[in-house]
Amino acid sequence: MKSSYSITTFQKYKTKAKILEKKFNVTDLYKFEDQRINEYLGGGFGRENGYESILIYGDTGIGKSVLTLNMIAAAMKQGKTVGMMILEDDMADVYNRLKKIIPGSDIDSSQHIILSDDELEKVFTLDDVCEMMKIWFKDLKADIIFLDHLQFLFEAASSESKNAQWNEQRMFMRQLMPILKKLNKTIVIVSHINKSKEDGMAQIMGSSGIYQSATKVIELRVNDDQEELVLRKSRFTKKKNGGLDSLPVKLSDFKLTVDDKRKEESGSNESDI
User: Fold this and answer.
1) pLDDT at 139 over 90
2) Model pTM?
3) What's the chain look like in SS3?
4) Confidence class of residue 269 from pLDDT cuts 50, 70 and 90?
């Protein structure tokens, strides 16, 4: 009986492996304005000639969307084509906030792709969203897509049963990853947390497949009235800069920077990912 499966060898991947080796253990395709944030995250986020799936999570109102805006601004300033699936905020507000971070000329580029209000009103499935992302990446030439926030998407396209919802979420992430890998693209996904007493990535709302499939997971939290970034997972970088467990930051006028005063007070502790 003839098999329908094809067999391949490492020869197929050697050329790409050689290209990726030049930036091994570094994710620096996109960079924040504050270089110290890039250093903490292993160079920034996204990989040249490779894929990355970044998950941002934290409590409601903590500033996840502001962190995301700074990532959008970083990509726009580099002349990249940015896809934005902003499902909760008004895009007019997003535009005004972005203008506080970068010049309007970078935002106004016709190359950027936005999920319109009309599209949001349509009934869709998670399969539809995966297909839309594939079109954005492949046909519309998006370099990076931002999805804010994930639970809004799942609620709009979910089944009634909780178990069915979690299976759909797991399948959504499973369908998304091959698209990113094949096209060498980056996606940034924003997630809410549940209200349980769990810590770390277990707080992330929904299926565990959401954070298991991510290559970089960043928590934004408040510790002693201080916002800080916590790099919970990083598949493509070995160690956080200086071994810092967390990085104190401040969100002022929609700009994300390191909080120098708090950083000096906290010092650094050696810690592997």
Assistant:
1) yes
2) 0.90
3) CCCCCCCCCHHHCHHHHHHHHCCCCCCCCECCCCHHHHHHCCCCECCCCCCEEEEEECCCCCCHHHHHHHHHHHHHHCCCCEEEEECCCCHHHHHHHHHCCCCHHHHCCCCCEECCHHHHCCCCCHHHHHHHHHHHHHCCCCCEEEEECHHHHHHHCCCCCHHHHHHHHHHHHHHHHHHHHHHCCEEEEEECECCCCCCHHHHECCCCHHHHCCCEEEEEEEECCEEEEEEEEECCCCECHHHCCCEEEEEECCEEEECHHHHHHHCCCCCEC
4) very low
Query: Under a CB-based contact definition with an 8 Å cutoff, are residues 47 and 203 in contact?
Result: no
pLDDT greater than 80 at residue 145: yes
Residue in 270, 259, 255 with CA at minimum distance from that of residue 99? 255
Residue-wise pLDDT for 40-90, tens only, equals 999 999 999 999 999 999 999 999 999 999 999 999 999 999 999 999 899
**Least confident stretch, 132-136, 193-197, 252-256:** 193-197
Task: Say what the pLDDT of residue 85 is.
Answer: 95
